[in-house]
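Lab notebook, bench 4. Still working through the backlog of constructs that have no structural model yet. Next entry is a single chain of 270 residues. Request: give me the structure tokens for it.
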Amino acid sequence: MLPELPRIGLGTASRGDRHRWADRVERALERGYRHLDTAQVYGNEAYVGEGLERSSVPREEVFLATKTVHVDVPGPTRTDLVDSVEASLERLRTDYVDLLYVHWPTGVYDPELTLGVFDDLRDDGLIRHVGVSNFELDDLETAREFLDAPIVANQVECHPLLPQEHLRAAALEDDHWLVAYCPLARGEVFDVPEVRAVARKHDASPAQVSLAWLCSKPNVAAIPRASSDAHMRENLAATDVALDDEDLELLDAIERRYRVIDRDYASWKD
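Model written out:
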């Protein structure tokens, strides 16, 4: 059964401000966030864990996700992978994570070995669910060949300028979440005429319209990064923006395409 996932979570990808995430996570939880997303390579798991521990919100009420296997880390062996996940749990100050993602299907990623370890970690209770990130359709198909556990989420870049129709369709057909990172395209959506028009209509911000558009799609959640209280509140309130059919048709018809994260080793380059 697909677990319930808050539609708006807190993304914590960092650019030199890792130490600030303890305060940000604590404040986000106070504001009502219940979905936290981090990764080993962000270098901020310890601060995310500190903020979670300092919060008055019980651990079991928070959906906590992290990621491992990113090009050349944690290493190619089973021991490397297990050790890395145990280190993540220690940094996050928790006995388990609700969701563990394969960060990229490249480099040290070996579907049989990696996903076999994920199954074992799930059986041992260290992770509740298995996810993947930056996977295309072929990657998803291969992963299912080696996984006993269901894929609960595929985390990919998704926003009105990169709608990912094929991956959203797969999420609905296969009953997993598509979790949208960079859901605001790092601000690129703010100046899109269609987004601005819908924002004016609803007395909302372009950020809220973009997030509301994502949340209107079945099986889609978003994890915008936010550092200030104002942005945290703004993003969370996007779930109150009720887009009508006319709005959705206008946003769905945007022709411009823009991708923020476009690594040379990405599957969509094949």
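Notes after review: The mean pLDDT is 97. The longest helix spans residues 78-92. Flag for follow-up if needed.
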